[in-house]
Amino acid sequence: MKEIFNEMKILLGADHNGFKLKKVIKKYLKKLGIDYRDLGNTKFDPKDDYPDFAIPVAKKVAKTKDKGILICGSGAGVCIVANKIKGIRAAQAFTPLQAKKLREEDDINILCLDGWEIREKKAREIVKKFLKTKFSQLPRHKRRIKKIKRIEEK
User: Fold this and answer.
1) Pairing of strands 67-72, 9-14
2) DSSP letter for each residue of 101-117
3) Which of 6, 14, 50, 91 has the fewest CB atoms within 10 Å, i.e. the most exposed one?
4) What is the mean pLDDT of residues 110-137?
5) Residue 72 bears catalytic tag
6) Of 1-5, 53-57, 102-106, 126-130, where does mean pLDDT reach its minimum?
7) Are 110 and 58 in contact (CB under 8 A)?
8) How far is CA 150 from CA 127, 142, 146, 153, in A?
9) pLDDT tens across 19-65, in order?
């Protein structure tokens, strides 16, 4: 598993509601030896807005093909914003199984997390599944991704 992680770069972003959980995830990524870049907020600001961090992460993921992790209060706000960027397939996961299925079947490239409800241990488990799971490459899953890409071209 270590060799899989050595190839990765993770782009992180969180507003004030996700700031604490992002610190936990950064520590976990460091422990795993995974290269990451924090695109903000880099300091706690209770008046910041999640689009200010979701947009740069999503644009960078779309350009570089790296993976991203975004966190806000519910996780939904960053997910909505990220999915506005062409090439992004962002989704929320509340369990490790969801993270696994989202990677295998939907080839998500940004994991969105709920900073209000997801606790540290669960967050680490979800992130680990997101990072170690690969897209299945099954024909039906590839077909669905192609349909999404066609929508983005309209």
Assistant:
1) parallel
2) HHHHHH--SEEEEETTT
3) 6
4) 98
5) yes
6) 1-5
7) yes
8) 29, 12, 6, 5
9) 999 999 999 999 999 999 999 999 999 999 999 999 999 999 999 99
Say how far apart CA 38 and CA 131 lie, in whole Å: 17
Look at residues 114, 113, 68 and name the one whose alpha carbon lies nearest to residue 87.
Answer: 68
17/35 Cα distance (integer angstroms): 23
In 7-89, DSSP assigns E strands to 9-14, 35-38, 67-72
Break the chain down into helix, strand, coil percent, rounded to 5: 50, 15, 35
Long-range own/partner contacts, residues 26-33 (CB < 8 A, 24 or more apart):
28/123, 28/124, 28/127, 29/127, 32/5, 32/128, 32/131, 33/2, 33/5, 33/6
In angstroms, the CA 128 to CA 111 distance is 11
List the chain domain ranges: 2-153
Number of Cβ within a 10 Å radius of residue 36: 20
- Rounded-to-integer distance, Cα 2 and Cα 114, Å: 27
Question: Are 111 and 127 in contact, with CB atoms under 8 Å apart?
Answer: yes
Which residue out of 29, 58, 71, 72 is catalytically annotated? 72
Assigned CATH for 2-153: 3.40.1400.10
